[in-house]
Specification:
Layout lengths: L18 H20 L6 H15 L22 E5 L26 E7 L21 E3 L6 E2 L13 E3 L4 E5 L13 E3 L4 E4 L16 E3 L4 E5 L12 E3 L4 E4 L13 E3 L4 E5 L19 E3 L14 H38 L7 E3 L8 E4 L8 H6 L1 E8 L2 E7 L5 E7 L7 H12 L9 E6 L5 E6 L4 E2 H6 L10 H20 L15 E3 L5 E3 L10 H14 L14 H17 L13 H10 L9 H4 L10 H11 L10 H13 L8 H4 L7
Parallel strand pairs: 2-3, 3-5, 4-6, 5-7, 6-8, 7-9, 8-10, 9-11, 10-12, 11-13, 12-14, 14-15
Antiparallel strand pairs: 1-2, 16-17, 17-21, 18-19, 19-20, 20-22, 21-22, 23-24, 24-25
Helix pairs in contact: 7-9, 7-13, 9-12, 12-13
Length: 683
């Protein structure tokens, strides 16, 4: 057999090319690679669906600030309101724990990427619900409450195979509830559709075998539903909360409803139900308020039902005369009553448990309870008690921990110091009020734990953010640039948060501890105020300590020397100091230690005609003219907020207005499109 010739040694292809040809070949290869990468579409089906269908439908005709972050030019971890997994729901992507992920631009092209959650409450969404929401195979939770979404609930939403929590409350959704919604029964834990304009009867499940045994919360209140009581609801054995109030339901209430052993909160008020209540309700935990506004209902806990005997002709005549006379009065007030009924019902409902779930302590003592607010439904008592903590901050009234849950997620725990908090009777109403506060620039209280021995835990989302104090005063390398657009955005966000506390709630809340350490800044330079309302929880001695700490830090209004109680005007003063701190880059104080009396420094600079020297050098970088770019106007506003006389200070709504007008005049090249937006630019 003839021998084969020896195998030729390998050689590089480019050795056959002259030098100039090789350089051209290299450039071509690089160009092909670069442009193919730059122009490539994300290969994750969920990302494509999110960008092409969901985003345009939710935002409507106008660009939405929150949805602007859904952009392949930004790392996936910076897309607002979303949670992801890679390779299925078991492999959740923990952006907060991995700095590399937070800057990974290629993550959105991972074909194994799946969307787990959309959480955009109070995000100014003005579009509609796209039917494509039902196409996400791994979508577990959808929170789009308190927006301005219109149109119907799409039939296709019932096809989402993994959806367990659905909150569309507080929108302008209309039309009938699709029967397909009950297709979610095998997984559904909470369904909140209240405060919309939904109408028609509540449809029966398409599949008679649907049991919804996992469903704990069903809230259809404040809509225009009509027809008979949905009897199939009494088969939802795991139901803990049922609210059908302020609708147009009629007929009798099914006796089988009394058989729901786990039901702890029931509200059927302000409908047209008639007949006797189930006999067991007279001995149950439900009070008369749960059934009020239904004139035809009777039986305990309401008034006794009539004996059924006929009325005399005289009685009938008296009733007729009374009705005719009353009709005149009713006609004059009916419109106002109808309009006010919904308002009264909402106020009453806000004074109730407000989306709270109580759980008994797992040790069997029965005294420890976890109160869960909206957005904290995923937390359980076991999760909180078994979380491992890392101390983040200590104050004279408690300790803040970063706590890791068993599933790998993080929460922020504030353990109040023993003896610092009021007793439970005084504490819980404040906790309920704080738990209802929702605003982009305020940290949301997700849960509260009252232990058997009196220990109290406030539970918040964990934000891997830096405080404004650190960003302004940390001298270590790697600190992001805080130019004027970003500082203006922070100041405006803080002002909006305070304005919401002062005037945006049914019962106003005073922050009481405004300072740069209590302002968290995320990667988009969006600020979130923390610790608001905590002084209301404290015993007087501890509340006084909080005021004294504010004095030491230079945020204390002059009138607090004599009065111990903070108010909205003392918050305005503290905001003025904060705005000076933002503009000047100096720590506030009263001339002692490393802090400075910032208002006094500004007054001296004005007298000496050296006003420009008070501004932080970093603020001035890139500005063409401090007057044209709004720096001087902001300085005047800050000094107005710091007026010695409380009555001379503006309220926070006026502060917000002036800062917004100030922003509209800023058109220097320093302001990028993202700096002008509500999103900003990441660190």
């Amino acid at each position: 057999m003839p021998s084969l010739p020896p195998k030729a040694a390998p050689f590089p292809l480019f050795s056959l090319l002259p030098c100039s040809s090789f350089f051209f070949f290299f450039l071509c290869c690089f160009a092909v690679y670069f442009f193919s990468f730059a122009s490539s579409e994300p290969s994750s089906a969920d990302v494509v669906l999110l960008l092409n269908k969901i985003k345009p439908a939710l935002q409507g005709s106008a660009t939405n600030a929150e949805l602007s972050s859904w952009n392949v030019s930004l790392p996936l971890c910076l897309w607002r309101g979303l949670r992801w997994s890679a390779g299925g729901s078991a492999a959740k992507i923990r952006c907060e724990d991995d700095l590399a992920l937070r800057s990974n631009l290629s993550l959105s092209s991972d074909p194994s990427l799946h969307l787990l959650s959309i959480r955009l409450p109070a995000a100014a969404l003005a579009g509609s619900l796209p039917p494509e929401l039902g196409l996400f195979s791994y979508l577990e939770s959808l929170y789009l409450d308190v927006n301005s979404l219109t149109g119907p609930i799409p039939l296709e939403l019932g096809n989402a195979p993994a959806l367990s929590d659905l909150d569309l409350a507080g929108n302008a959704l209309e039309g009938a509830l699709p029967p397909s919604i009950w297709n979610l029964c095998d997984r559904l834990v909470s369904l909140r559709l209240h405060e919309n304009d939904l109408s028609g009867s509540v449809p029966d499940p398409a599949m008679p075998s649907a049991s919804c045994n996992k469903l704990k919360v069903l809230d259809l209140s404040n809509n225009r539903f009509q027809g008979s009581f949905p009897k199939f609801v009494s088969e939802f054995s795991g139901l803990e909360e049922l609210d059908l109030s302020n609708n147009r339901f009629s007929g009798s209430i099914t006796d089988s409803l009394a058989g729901l052993g786990k039901l702890v909160r029931l509200n059927l008020s302000y409908n047209n139900f008639t007949g006797p209540l189930p006999a067991s309700f007279g001995e149950s935990k439900f009070k008369a308020e749960a059934f009020q506004g239904n004139p035809g209902l009777c039986g305990p806990p309401l008034g006794k039902c009539g004996s059924g005997s006929g009325l005399s002709s005289g009685a009938i005549a008296g009733i007729v005369i009374g009705l005719l006379a009353g009709a005149v009065v009713l006609a004059s007030v009916s419109i106002g009553w109808v309009q006010g009924r919904k308002r009264r019902n909402r106020a009453r409902k806000a004074d109730e448990e407000a989306d709270m779930v109580f759980e008994e302590d797992g040790n069997g003592g029965g005294d420890g309870k976890l109160i869960v607010f909206q957005g904290g439904e995923h937390l359980s008592l076991e999760d909180v008690l078994n979380a491992t903590g890392q101390v983040m901050e200590k104050t004279n009234y408690g300790t803040v921990y970063k706590a890791k849950l068993a599933d790998g997620g993080n929460i922020s725990l504030r353990l109040l110091r023993e003896g610092s908090c009021k007793d439970q009777a005084e504490c819980l109403p404040v906790i309920r009020q704080l738990g209802r506060v929702r605003h982009e620039n305020l940290t949301a209280l997700r849960a509260f734990y009252q232990g058997k021995r009196g220990e109290k835990l406030l539970i918040y989302d964990y934000h891997p953010s830096r405080s404004l104090h650190d960003l302004l005063h940390d001298t270590r390398a790697g600190k992001p640039l805080l130019n004027w657009p970003r500082r203006h955005k922070i100041a405006l966000g803080v002002a909006r948060g305070l304005a919401h506390l002062h005037t945006g709630l049914e019962t106003p809340i005073t922050h009481g501890n405004v300072r740069s350490k209590n302002v968290l800044i995320d990667e988009y330079f969006v600020p979130r105020l923390t610790e608001f309302g905590l002084d209301k929880l404290m015993v007087p001695a501890v509340a006084d300590e909080m005021v004294s700490a504010a004095k030491c830090d230079g945020y204390k209004a002059p009138e607090l020397q004599k009065m111990k109680k903070c108010g909205s005007r003392t918050d305005v003063y503290a905001f003025g100091i904060l705005l000076l701190e933002i503009l000047m880059g100096r720590k506030p104080g009263k001339g002692t230690g490393e802090g400075a009396d910032l208002p006094a420094l500004v007054k001296v600079a004005v007298l000496e005609e050296t006003t420009m020297e008070v501004f932080d050098v970093e603020v001035l970088k890139g500005t063409r003219n401090p007057m044209e770019d709004g720096l001087v106007q902001a300085l005047k506003l800050a000094m107005g907020c710091c007026a010695p006389a409380a009555a001379a200070r503006p309220d926070m709504n006026e502060v917000v207005k002036q800062l917004e007008e100030n922003r509209s005049r800023n058109r220097s090249a320093l302001y990028t499109p993202t700096d002008r937006s509500e999103i900003g630019t990441p660190f």
